[in-house]
Structures are given as C-alpha cells and as structure tokens.
Amino acid sequence: MTLLLRFALPLALLTTACSGSDSTSTPQTASTPATPVVTTPVTAMSLEERGAKIYKRCRACHTLDQDGRNKVGPNLWGIYGAKAGEKEGYAYSKAMLASNIVWDQETMDAYLKKPAEYVKGTKMSFIGLKKQEDRDAVQAYMLAETTP
Known about the structure:
The N terminus is likely disordered. It is built from six helices and no strands. α2 packs across α6 and α4 crosses α6. The protein is mainly α. It is globular, with a radius of gyration of 35 Å. It has a domain of 100 residues: Cytochrome Bc1 Complex, Chain D, domain 2 (Orthogonal Bundle), CATH 1.10.760.10. It is 39% helix and 0% strand.
C-alpha cells in the first residue's frame, strides 16, 4: 500500500501539471461545448412589400390586373396618368365624373388620405389612410402593379 501511495500521488500531480489547466479556469468537457452566438439578421420590408400588405384592405373592392374586372370599385390597372371617371364599364359617381382629376402621386395621395373629403360625393366609403408612410407604401405597390 505504501508503494501505491508513493507512486500514485506524484503521478496525479504530474498529470495535473502537464494538462495545462489551472484551478482558476473552467475546463470544457464534451457535455458543455462552447455555444456559438447566433444573430438573426433583421430584414427590412421594402416599401412595395409594405404597400402590398396595406393594399390587402383595398382588394375587396379593387383589382390591379390588366383587363381585370371591376368590383365594388373600378379596376385600377393604368390608373396613374388617367383621368378620373373614365374607366370603361364602371358606374362612377357624378362627383367623380365631374372632378377633372388626373391621377398622379399627388392627387392619389390626397384621395387616399380622405377620399370623401377630396371628392365630395364619391362612392368610395373607405375612411382613408392617415399615415403618410402608409400612403407612400400603397402608392409604391400600386405603381409597380398597375403601370403598363
């Protein structure tokens, strides 16, 4: 037994000294691997993508496709640059027919903000989009989808 203690103690000390670890560091074992830091990149939604989401409110009444059908509201294909009330096959209000509006970004912005105020007597019952950034996003989407 003394022979065992005489060789075992120095052997244990030698293995600890040669392992390169000291008592202040935390040894890593197979059960505690280093955990990599994973960061998820924040993806910003483009103006058109945001507009597409907001436009979902409009699609119950309007289509955007070329030769698309009219619904409760007129099809909006080619709306920019067109005179208000001239889309064939849609029964516009007298107010819209008399408005003399040519749709561009400025007139569309004003209409989308408060339709009933911009064209008094319009058939469009939508209350409007209060936020400028929402109107800008919808217009970016509409321009991309309806411009020939």
